[in-house]
Amino acid sequence: MSLTGGNRHDVTELLPLIDKIPPVRGRRGRPRRRPDQLFGDRAYDHDKYRRAVRGKGIRPRIARRGHPHGSGLGVVRWMVERTIAWYHGMRRLRIRWERRDDMHEAFLSLTTCIITYRHVVRLC
Questions:
Q1: What pTM was computed for the model?
Q2: Helix (H) or strand (E) holding 19
Q3: What is the mean pLDDT of each run of 10 residues along the chain (124 residues)?
Q4: What single string gives the DSSP state of each residue in 75-113?
Q5: Nearest to 1 by CA among 32, 18, 56, 44
Q6: Which of 12, 96, 100, 119 is the most exposed, fewest CB within 10 Å of its CB?
């Protein structure tokens, strides 16, 4: 994942994100390098990105504007929104004050550790 400006559209990082997917461990044999499908909301609805995703051997399941999606994607979206709210709960990350990318990414990593620790303590 790369660090981009705050007012950039998410779709600009779609292809670099797909390229950085690590091998999936599982059954014996050659590890899978790509997922079978990619789910996306209407913000990713453009034929250019559909072709690019298909070119990487992934079936795009991207909602078309003006049509119901039918995949149930919105059912679990609250988990993503909740996690982003947890990140914004850390004052240092709510507004980016650091000029250096490595410092900001270090604070993101530290926050991820804190969120994970709090979640594990709650489960135990």
A1: 0.57
A2: helix 14-19
A3: 65 82 74 79 83 90 75 65 82 77 86 91 88
A4: GSHHHHHHHHHHHHTSHHHHTT--SSHHHHHHHHHHHHH
A5: 18
A6: 100
